[in-house]
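Example 3.2
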Amino acid sequence: MPVAVIDGQPLHYIDQGAGPVVLLGSSYLWASDMWAPQIEALSQQYRVIVPELWGHGESGPLPAATHSLDAPARQSMGLLDQLDIKQANLVGLSVGGMWGARLALQAPERINSVVLMDTYLGAEPEATRQYYFSLFKMIEDAGAIPEPLLDVIAPIFFRPGIDRESALYRDFRQSLQDFPRERLLDSIVPLGRLIFSREDILAHLPALDSDTTLVMCGEQDKPRPPAESEEMADLIGCSLILIPEAGHISSRENPDFVNEALLTFLANHG
């Protein structure tokens, strides 16, 4: 994977295919493989760029200058600048949509179209924020994701009926277990706190172009329930697609549906 130095740290990214650019923004706790089915499908006719979040995959630690979700938006713009990419179509899932929407609002001339997947641009509800912060404290104290927490955290990302013996679930659970202590403490926990104490920017969403914006959400997404996506689609005035048989990581739980929806949208707007 190629690397760009952004804010003094190595940002690893995938760059595959040729054509109009599609920038994929990933979920917290997931490396670029969360987009594997989309990279394969989209790269047949698009240039697909997938930056890995700080502390995830092969990327370096969270840069000191990262104080809010405006930072990953600015850092992703820096990557586009380094690659001499003038315009991109942005597809952001979870935190990828949180910084992706900020990027589209800050630099609309650089973003052709926006797909917000399984994400929410409001503040985190206080009860869930406190719950996640309690998990971060346990991880910090242990210097690892303790065994009992693995089967608390992993199911959050999938529909309730996920087969816990499936490769998708087991591989993700293993990836959580494999995070080294240093990476958890210098990147994963601080980034998590930043994500879940984010500012509410719902009031800015009407500034997004309703014709070139799409909201998508897994029908069974637990952390980002469809009601949040409905609220955002109403504010933007854009279409909403609910993804059947999918929870939070809809890109992996129902990849064929997601691929078809993205290809259809990009064909009209990309």
